[in-house]
Amino acid sequence: MTGLRSQSFGLRALQPEAFGAEPRGERLARIRRSPHFKDGVFQNPGGTAHTRPSASPLDLAKMYFDQDTRPLRAPDGTLPVHATTFADLAKPPVTGLRVTWMGHSSVLAEIDGHRVLFDPVWGERCSPFPFAGPRRLHPVPLPLAALGPVDVVVISHDHYDHLDMPTIKALAGTDTLFAVPLGVGAHLEHWGVSPDRLRELDWHESAKVGGLTLTATPARHFCGRGLRNTQHTLWASWVVEGDEHRIYHSGDTGYFDGFQDIGAAHGPFDVTMIQIGAYSEYWTDIHMTPQEGVRAHLDLQGGTPHGVLLPIHWGTFNLAFHPWAEPGEWTRDAAEEAGQAAAFPRPGEPFEPAGTLPAQAWWRTVSAPIDRPWRRPEAPRISPEAPRTDIDLACDR
What is the third-level CATH fold of 55-390? Predict the structure, then answer.
Protein backbone atom coordinates (compact mmCIF):
# COMPACT_ATOMS: atom_id res chain seq x y z
CA MET A 1 0.00 0.00 0.00
CA THR A 2 2.84 2.38 0.81
CA GLY A 3 4.34 1.77 -2.61
CA LEU A 4 1.01 2.50 -4.32
CA ARG A 5 0.60 5.70 -2.33
CA SER A 6 4.11 6.79 -3.26
CA GLN A 7 3.49 6.01 -6.93
CA SER A 8 0.19 7.92 -6.86
CA PHE A 9 1.84 10.95 -5.28
CA GLY A 10 4.56 10.86 -7.92
CA LEU A 11 2.00 10.94 -10.73
CA ARG A 12 0.17 13.83 -9.10
CA ALA A 13 3.44 15.72 -8.74
CA LEU A 14 4.01 15.35 -12.50
CA GLN A 15 0.52 16.59 -13.33
CA PRO A 16 0.15 20.21 -12.19
CA GLU A 17 -3.21 21.90 -12.38
CA ALA A 18 -2.07 23.83 -15.43
CA PHE A 19 -2.23 20.63 -17.48
CA GLY A 20 -6.00 21.07 -17.41
CA ALA A 21 -8.49 18.24 -17.79
CA GLU A 22 -9.35 15.64 -20.40
CA PRO A 23 -12.81 15.83 -22.03
CA ARG A 24 -15.24 13.36 -20.54
CA GLY A 25 -18.92 12.43 -20.61
CA GLU A 26 -21.13 14.28 -23.09
CA ARG A 27 -18.22 16.54 -24.12
CA LEU A 28 -16.20 13.50 -25.18
CA ALA A 29 -19.25 12.00 -26.90
CA ARG A 30 -19.69 15.20 -28.87
CA ILE A 31 -16.03 15.09 -29.87
CA ARG A 32 -16.44 11.55 -31.16
CA ARG A 33 -19.42 12.66 -33.24
CA SER A 34 -17.44 15.42 -34.93
CA PRO A 35 -16.80 14.87 -38.65
CA HIS A 36 -13.24 16.09 -38.00
CA PHE A 37 -12.51 13.38 -35.40
CA LYS A 38 -11.28 10.10 -36.87
CA ASP A 39 -9.25 7.14 -35.62
CA GLY A 40 -9.25 8.57 -32.10
CA VAL A 41 -7.83 12.02 -32.95
CA PHE A 42 -8.85 15.29 -34.57
CA GLN A 43 -7.72 15.52 -38.18
CA ASN A 44 -6.22 18.51 -39.96
CA PRO A 45 -7.62 19.80 -43.24
CA GLY A 46 -5.71 18.11 -46.01
CA GLY A 47 -4.58 15.26 -43.77
CA THR A 48 -2.61 14.87 -40.57
CA ALA A 49 0.09 17.52 -40.10
CA HIS A 50 3.58 16.59 -39.00
CA THR A 51 3.47 17.97 -35.46
CA ARG A 52 6.91 16.71 -34.51
CA PRO A 53 10.14 18.38 -35.70
CA SER A 54 11.91 16.61 -38.55
CA ALA A 55 15.24 17.02 -36.70
CA SER A 56 16.38 14.85 -33.78
CA PRO A 57 16.05 16.18 -30.21
CA LEU A 58 19.85 16.36 -30.01
CA ASP A 59 20.06 18.44 -33.19
CA LEU A 60 17.33 20.76 -31.93
CA ALA A 61 19.14 21.17 -28.61
CA LYS A 62 22.36 22.05 -30.43
CA MET A 63 20.54 24.71 -32.47
CA TYR A 64 18.84 26.10 -29.38
CA PHE A 65 22.11 26.51 -27.48
CA ASP A 66 24.17 27.65 -30.48
CA GLN A 67 26.27 30.54 -29.15
CA ASP A 68 26.33 32.31 -32.52
CA THR A 69 22.56 32.50 -33.00
CA ARG A 70 21.30 32.46 -29.40
CA PRO A 71 21.95 36.22 -28.79
CA LEU A 72 19.77 37.05 -31.83
CA ARG A 73 16.78 35.34 -30.24
CA ALA A 74 16.34 38.02 -27.58
CA PRO A 75 16.30 41.84 -27.68
CA ASP A 76 19.49 43.83 -27.05
CA GLY A 77 17.59 46.04 -24.61
CA THR A 78 14.16 46.80 -23.20
CA LEU A 79 11.32 46.45 -25.69
CA PRO A 80 9.40 49.71 -26.19
CA VAL A 81 6.02 48.69 -24.77
CA HIS A 82 3.25 51.25 -25.25
CA ALA A 83 1.95 52.67 -21.96
CA THR A 84 -1.72 51.88 -22.51
CA THR A 85 -4.12 53.01 -19.79
CA PHE A 86 -7.68 52.20 -18.83
CA ALA A 87 -8.63 55.71 -19.95
CA ASP A 88 -7.24 55.03 -23.44
CA LEU A 89 -9.42 51.97 -23.82
CA ALA A 90 -12.47 53.56 -22.20
CA LYS A 91 -12.93 55.94 -25.13
CA PRO A 92 -15.01 54.27 -27.86
CA PRO A 93 -13.28 53.88 -31.23
CA VAL A 94 -14.20 56.65 -33.65
CA THR A 95 -14.61 54.23 -36.58
CA GLY A 96 -16.31 51.45 -34.62
CA LEU A 97 -13.28 49.14 -34.76
CA ARG A 98 -10.11 49.37 -32.68
CA VAL A 99 -7.45 46.72 -32.18
CA THR A 100 -4.82 46.49 -29.44
CA TRP A 101 -2.06 43.91 -29.78
CA MET A 102 -0.97 42.92 -26.26
CA GLY A 103 1.93 40.79 -27.48
CA HIS A 104 2.20 37.32 -29.01
CA SER A 105 -1.35 36.26 -30.04
CA SER A 106 -3.19 38.25 -27.37
CA VAL A 107 -5.37 40.92 -28.98
CA LEU A 108 -8.19 43.10 -27.67
CA ALA A 109 -10.63 43.90 -30.48
CA GLU A 110 -13.32 46.51 -29.90
CA ILE A 111 -15.84 45.91 -32.65
CA ASP A 112 -19.22 47.56 -33.13
CA GLY A 113 -19.73 48.24 -29.45
CA HIS A 114 -18.44 44.89 -28.19
CA ARG A 115 -15.08 43.86 -26.72
CA VAL A 116 -13.41 40.61 -27.74
CA LEU A 117 -10.18 39.33 -26.17
CA PHE A 118 -8.26 36.73 -28.19
CA ASP A 119 -5.84 34.22 -26.63
CA PRO A 120 -5.08 36.24 -23.48
CA VAL A 121 -1.74 35.29 -21.93
CA TRP A 122 -0.74 37.51 -19.02
CA GLY A 123 1.54 34.94 -17.38
CA GLU A 124 5.30 35.38 -17.13
CA ARG A 125 6.01 32.04 -18.84
CA CYS A 126 4.11 29.94 -21.39
CA SER A 127 4.62 26.75 -19.46
CA PRO A 128 2.85 24.55 -16.89
CA PHE A 129 5.63 25.41 -14.44
CA PRO A 130 6.36 28.85 -12.93
CA PHE A 131 10.10 28.14 -12.81
CA ALA A 132 10.76 26.82 -16.34
CA GLY A 133 9.73 27.37 -19.92
CA PRO A 134 9.84 30.32 -22.36
CA ARG A 135 9.77 33.64 -20.52
CA ARG A 136 8.33 36.92 -21.76
CA LEU A 137 10.64 39.24 -23.69
CA HIS A 138 8.58 42.23 -22.52
CA PRO A 139 6.16 42.91 -19.66
CA VAL A 140 2.42 42.89 -20.26
CA PRO A 141 1.37 46.35 -21.50
CA LEU A 142 -1.15 46.80 -18.70
CA PRO A 143 -2.71 44.75 -15.88
CA LEU A 144 -5.52 42.43 -16.88
CA ALA A 145 -7.96 44.29 -14.63
CA ALA A 146 -7.18 47.54 -16.45
CA LEU A 147 -8.72 46.21 -19.66
CA GLY A 148 -12.19 46.88 -18.35
CA PRO A 149 -15.18 44.62 -19.09
CA VAL A 150 -14.77 42.05 -21.87
CA ASP A 151 -17.82 40.57 -23.59
CA VAL A 152 -16.16 37.38 -24.84
CA VAL A 153 -12.77 35.69 -24.56
CA VAL A 154 -11.85 33.66 -27.63
CA ILE A 155 -9.33 30.81 -27.40
CA SER A 156 -7.74 29.34 -30.54
CA HIS A 157 -6.28 26.16 -28.98
CA ASP A 158 -4.92 24.79 -25.74
CA HIS A 159 -1.14 25.29 -26.07
CA TYR A 160 0.43 27.23 -23.21
CA ASP A 161 1.26 30.32 -25.26
CA HIS A 162 -2.45 30.69 -26.12
CA LEU A 163 -4.29 29.26 -23.12
CA ASP A 164 -2.82 30.52 -19.84
CA MET A 165 -4.28 29.10 -16.63
CA PRO A 166 -3.57 32.12 -14.35
CA THR A 167 -5.17 34.46 -16.89
CA ILE A 168 -8.24 32.25 -17.31
CA LYS A 169 -8.64 31.96 -13.55
CA ALA A 170 -8.58 35.73 -13.24
CA LEU A 171 -11.17 36.09 -16.00
CA ALA A 172 -13.31 33.33 -14.48
CA GLY A 173 -14.28 35.78 -11.76
CA THR A 174 -15.79 38.20 -14.27
CA ASP A 175 -19.00 38.08 -16.32
CA THR A 176 -17.26 37.36 -19.62
CA LEU A 177 -18.25 34.50 -21.90
CA PHE A 178 -15.69 32.14 -23.43
CA ALA A 179 -15.71 30.89 -27.02
CA VAL A 180 -13.44 27.86 -27.43
CA PRO A 181 -12.84 25.00 -29.87
CA LEU A 182 -14.44 21.63 -29.18
CA GLY A 183 -12.98 19.94 -26.09
CA VAL A 184 -11.10 22.97 -24.74
CA GLY A 185 -13.99 23.72 -22.39
CA ALA A 186 -12.80 20.86 -20.17
CA HIS A 187 -9.73 22.89 -19.21
CA LEU A 188 -11.74 26.02 -18.46
CA GLU A 189 -14.30 24.18 -16.32
CA HIS A 190 -11.41 22.60 -14.42
CA TRP A 191 -10.16 26.12 -13.65
CA GLY A 192 -13.48 27.50 -12.42
CA VAL A 193 -15.38 28.71 -15.51
CA SER A 194 -19.03 27.70 -15.24
CA PRO A 195 -20.42 25.65 -18.16
CA ASP A 196 -23.16 28.20 -18.88
CA ARG A 197 -20.47 30.75 -19.82
CA LEU A 198 -18.86 28.45 -22.41
CA ARG A 199 -19.56 28.46 -26.13
CA GLU A 200 -17.74 25.36 -27.35
CA LEU A 201 -17.67 25.02 -31.13
CA ASP A 202 -16.59 22.62 -33.85
CA TRP A 203 -15.29 23.99 -37.15
CA HIS A 204 -17.98 25.89 -39.10
CA GLU A 205 -20.22 26.23 -36.03
CA SER A 206 -21.27 29.70 -34.87
CA ALA A 207 -22.44 31.32 -31.65
CA LYS A 208 -24.15 34.65 -31.01
CA VAL A 209 -22.72 36.93 -28.33
CA GLY A 210 -24.75 40.11 -28.15
CA GLY A 211 -24.59 41.64 -31.61
CA LEU A 212 -21.61 39.52 -32.68
CA THR A 213 -21.45 36.23 -34.54
CA LEU A 214 -18.42 34.11 -33.71
CA THR A 215 -17.50 31.24 -36.03
CA ALA A 216 -14.82 28.62 -35.46
CA THR A 217 -13.02 28.02 -38.74
CA PRO A 218 -10.36 25.46 -39.71
CA ALA A 219 -6.66 25.74 -39.01
CA ARG A 220 -3.74 23.37 -39.55
CA HIS A 221 -2.11 22.71 -36.21
CA PHE A 222 -2.38 20.33 -33.22
CA CYS A 223 -3.20 20.36 -29.51
CA GLY A 224 -2.06 19.11 -26.12
CA ARG A 225 -1.04 20.29 -22.65
CA GLY A 226 -0.36 17.20 -20.54
CA LEU A 227 2.09 14.34 -20.48
CA ARG A 228 0.11 12.68 -23.27
CA ASN A 229 -0.98 14.42 -26.46
CA THR A 230 -4.39 12.79 -26.93
CA GLN A 231 -5.56 15.11 -29.76
CA HIS A 232 -8.92 15.28 -27.96
CA THR A 233 -9.18 19.05 -28.16
CA LEU A 234 -9.66 20.97 -31.38
CA TRP A 235 -7.66 23.94 -32.70
CA ALA A 236 -9.31 26.72 -34.69
CA SER A 237 -9.07 30.08 -36.35
CA TRP A 238 -11.92 32.50 -35.65
CA VAL A 239 -14.19 34.85 -37.54
CA VAL A 240 -15.99 37.60 -35.61
CA GLU A 241 -18.73 39.50 -37.44
CA GLY A 242 -20.45 42.61 -36.08
CA ASP A 243 -23.06 44.90 -37.55
CA GLU A 244 -20.47 46.84 -39.54
CA HIS A 245 -17.11 45.05 -39.30
CA ARG A 246 -15.56 41.63 -39.76
CA ILE A 247 -12.29 40.43 -38.24
CA TYR A 248 -10.26 37.22 -38.38
CA HIS A 249 -7.78 35.62 -35.94
CA SER A 250 -5.67 32.78 -37.33
CA GLY A 251 -4.58 31.14 -34.09
CA ASP A 252 -1.62 28.89 -34.94
CA THR A 253 -1.64 27.26 -38.36
CA GLY A 254 0.39 26.07 -41.25
CA TYR A 255 -0.46 27.42 -44.67
CA PHE A 256 -3.29 25.51 -46.39
CA ASP A 257 -5.90 25.93 -49.12
CA GLY A 258 -8.67 26.55 -46.61
CA PHE A 259 -7.88 30.26 -46.26
CA GLN A 260 -9.58 30.90 -49.60
CA ASP A 261 -12.67 29.01 -48.46
CA ILE A 262 -12.84 30.98 -45.20
CA GLY A 263 -12.51 34.23 -47.12
CA ALA A 264 -15.21 33.24 -49.59
CA ALA A 265 -17.62 32.30 -46.79
CA HIS A 266 -16.93 35.14 -44.34
CA GLY A 267 -14.69 37.80 -45.88
CA PRO A 268 -13.41 40.20 -46.80
CA PHE A 269 -12.17 41.39 -43.42
CA ASP A 270 -11.39 44.80 -41.98
CA VAL A 271 -8.43 43.32 -40.16
CA THR A 272 -6.81 39.89 -40.11
CA MET A 273 -4.62 38.86 -37.18
CA ILE A 274 -2.18 36.40 -38.72
CA GLN A 275 0.45 34.15 -37.10
CA ILE A 276 3.85 34.96 -38.65
CA GLY A 277 6.33 33.89 -35.94
CA ALA A 278 7.87 30.69 -34.45
CA TYR A 279 8.32 29.18 -37.92
CA SER A 280 11.02 26.72 -38.86
CA GLU A 281 11.95 24.48 -41.76
CA TYR A 282 11.59 21.65 -39.22
CA TRP A 283 7.82 22.17 -38.69
CA THR A 284 6.46 23.76 -41.83
CA ASP A 285 3.09 22.00 -41.47
CA ILE A 286 2.00 23.81 -38.32
CA HIS A 287 3.41 27.38 -38.43
CA MET A 288 3.57 29.91 -41.25
CA THR A 289 6.48 32.02 -42.34
CA PRO A 290 5.78 35.75 -42.75
CA GLN A 291 5.58 35.29 -46.52
CA GLU A 292 2.98 32.56 -46.08
CA GLY A 293 1.16 34.79 -43.61
CA VAL A 294 0.83 37.55 -46.20
CA ARG A 295 -0.33 34.98 -48.76
CA ALA A 296 -2.93 33.71 -46.26
CA HIS A 297 -4.15 37.26 -45.69
CA LEU A 298 -4.58 37.75 -49.45
CA ASP A 299 -6.41 34.43 -49.74
CA LEU A 300 -8.80 35.52 -46.99
CA GLN A 301 -9.44 38.77 -48.86
CA GLY A 302 -10.26 37.13 -52.17
CA GLY A 303 -6.75 37.39 -53.60
CA THR A 304 -6.43 41.18 -53.61
CA PRO A 305 -5.03 43.64 -51.05
CA HIS A 306 -7.83 44.62 -48.70
CA GLY A 307 -8.22 45.47 -45.06
CA VAL A 308 -5.27 45.54 -42.66
CA LEU A 309 -2.88 42.75 -41.75
CA LEU A 310 -1.84 42.64 -38.09
CA PRO A 311 1.11 40.26 -37.55
CA ILE A 312 0.80 38.21 -34.35
CA HIS A 313 2.62 35.36 -32.60
CA TRP A 314 6.00 37.07 -32.47
CA GLY A 315 8.09 39.41 -30.31
CA THR A 316 6.93 38.12 -26.91
CA PHE A 317 8.14 34.53 -26.44
CA ASN A 318 11.21 32.87 -27.95
CA LEU A 319 9.67 29.72 -29.48
CA ALA A 320 11.91 29.03 -32.49
CA PHE A 321 15.45 29.44 -33.79
CA HIS A 322 15.02 32.53 -35.95
CA PRO A 323 16.09 35.98 -34.70
CA TRP A 324 13.36 37.37 -32.46
CA ALA A 325 12.77 40.44 -34.68
CA GLU A 326 12.99 38.65 -38.03
CA PRO A 327 9.21 38.09 -38.32
CA GLY A 328 8.63 41.84 -38.15
CA GLU A 329 11.20 42.64 -40.84
CA TRP A 330 10.10 39.82 -43.14
CA THR A 331 6.39 40.65 -42.79
CA ARG A 332 7.12 44.31 -43.48
CA ASP A 333 8.98 43.41 -46.68
CA ALA A 334 6.40 40.85 -47.84
CA ALA A 335 3.44 43.16 -47.20
CA GLU A 336 5.13 46.03 -49.02
CA GLU A 337 5.92 43.78 -51.96
CA ALA A 338 2.29 42.65 -52.13
CA GLY A 339 0.93 46.19 -51.83
CA GLN A 340 -0.82 45.18 -48.64
CA ALA A 341 -1.49 47.53 -45.70
CA ALA A 342 0.00 46.15 -42.49
CA ALA A 343 0.08 47.49 -38.94
CA PHE A 344 3.15 47.21 -36.71
CA PRO A 345 2.06 48.49 -33.29
CA ARG A 346 4.22 48.25 -30.24
CA PRO A 347 2.74 45.86 -27.67
CA GLY A 348 -0.19 47.66 -26.07
CA GLU A 349 -0.59 50.31 -28.77
CA PRO A 350 -4.24 50.70 -29.89
CA PHE A 351 -5.03 51.57 -33.49
CA GLU A 352 -8.07 51.77 -35.74
CA PRO A 353 -7.69 49.92 -39.05
CA ALA A 354 -9.62 52.66 -40.85
CA GLY A 355 -7.33 55.34 -39.39
CA THR A 356 -3.60 55.97 -39.31
CA LEU A 357 -1.70 52.70 -39.00
CA PRO A 358 1.35 52.29 -36.73
CA ALA A 359 4.15 51.71 -39.20
CA GLN A 360 7.40 52.35 -37.32
CA ALA A 361 9.88 49.45 -37.19
CA TRP A 362 10.17 49.83 -33.41
CA TRP A 363 12.06 46.55 -32.96
CA ARG A 364 15.14 47.93 -34.70
CA THR A 365 16.06 49.98 -31.65
CA VAL A 366 16.68 46.80 -29.64
CA SER A 367 17.60 44.31 -32.35
CA ALA A 368 20.91 43.34 -33.88
CA PRO A 369 21.07 43.79 -37.68
CA ILE A 370 19.09 41.01 -39.37
CA ASP A 371 20.27 39.10 -42.41
CA ARG A 372 17.44 38.94 -44.95
CA PRO A 373 17.60 35.50 -46.58
CA TRP A 374 14.17 36.05 -48.12
CA ARG A 375 15.68 38.87 -50.19
CA ARG A 376 18.24 36.63 -51.88
CA PRO A 377 17.83 36.26 -55.67
CA GLU A 378 16.81 32.60 -55.40
CA ALA A 379 14.00 33.35 -52.93
CA PRO A 380 10.52 33.40 -54.52
CA ARG A 381 8.61 36.68 -54.64
CA ILE A 382 5.05 37.26 -53.52
CA SER A 383 2.40 39.37 -55.21
CA PRO A 384 -1.40 39.53 -55.04
CA GLU A 385 -1.57 37.32 -58.14
CA ALA A 386 1.22 34.95 -57.12
CA PRO A 387 0.34 31.26 -57.53
CA ARG A 388 0.40 29.10 -54.44
CA THR A 389 3.53 27.33 -55.64
CA ASP A 390 5.44 30.58 -54.97
CA ILE A 391 5.00 30.15 -51.22
CA ASP A 392 8.33 29.90 -49.46
CA LEU A 393 8.06 26.85 -47.22
CA ALA A 394 11.50 27.24 -45.66
CA CYS A 395 12.48 29.92 -43.19
CA ASP A 396 16.05 30.38 -44.36
CA ARG A 397 16.56 29.75 -48.03
Answer: Metallo-beta-lactamase; Chain A (3.60.15)
